[in-house]
Amino acid sequence: MIRDDFDDLVADRLDLAVRVGQSADASLVSRSVGGFGRALIASPPYLEKHGVPLTPEDLAGHTCVVHDTGPASAQWRFRGPGGPYKIEVPSALSATTSNVVRQAALAGHGIALLSEALVHEDILGGRLQRLMPEYPTERSHLFLVYPSRRYLAPRTRVVIDFVVEQFKVMGSRLEEELV
């Protein structure tokens, strides 16, 4: 099962979840697998039609596609030459699933702020253009979360080891190719 949220691993009968940020549930085991930033992106056709924003303030004049993760989803935060920025973006479309936001950006519906790992191949392939790299976002930390070490199934251990290794490889590639 793949989804962007979960309430209770045990009740949902999940062996493992990937979570952004440390889990507040002390009964769960959390293993850090690394961090990632988010990339401000848009499709070349969108940018040809609407222009390229050069500063966070310029986003107010653009259509944005928001990944709805809670009440502050339309408040995008950046660091830059002038200090920290917190910008309330106009949202023409929001979705609770990051892949829907990615597809909307690919289709030219607006500017989106998504995980670098999710849009990496699209940027390299020219389907999406990275905007304002001099205004990075804060890095988020990813954790693998699972109910117990004591009764961890061997297949779950294999998946954990695989995911940790893949995040290391992906992190190295992102540093080399997107910076």
Describe this structure in words.
- The mean pLDDT is 85.
- With 179 residues, the chain is of the alpha+beta class.
- The protein is 28% helix and 30% strand.
- The two termini are 33 Å apart.
- It has helices at 44-50, 98-106, 116-124, 154-178, and strands at residues 17-20, 29-36, 38-42, 64-67, 75-80, 83-88, 91-95, 111-115, 129-131, 140-146.
- The protein is built from four helices and ten strands.
- The strands form three sheets. It has a five-stranded mixed β-sheet with strand order 7-4-8-3-9. It has a three-stranded antiparallel β-sheet with strand order 1-10-2, with helices on one face.
- It has two domains: 17-35 and 140-178, Periplasmic binding protein-like II (D-Maltodextrin-Binding Protein, domain 2); 38-131, 3-Layer(aba) Sandwich (D-Maltodextrin-Binding Protein, domain 2), CATH 3.40.190.
Which helices and strands occur, and which strands form pairs?
Layout: E1 17-20, E2 29-36, E3 38-42, H1 44-50, E4 64-67, E5 75-80, E6 83-88, E7 91-95, H2 98-106, E8 111-115, H3 116-124, E9 129-131, E10 140-146, H4 154-178
Parallel strand pairs: 4-7, 4-8
Antiparallel strand pairs: 1-10, 2-10, 3-8, 3-9, 5-6
Helix pairs in contact: 3-4
Beta-strand percentage range: 25-35%
The number of E-state strands comes to 10
Q: Structural class, from secondary structure content?
A: alpha+beta
- In CATH terms, the superfamily of the largest domain is Periplasmic binding protein-like II
CATH architecture of the largest domain: 3-Layer(aba) Sandwich
Number of helices: 4
Sheet with the most strands: spatial strand order: 7-4-8-3-9
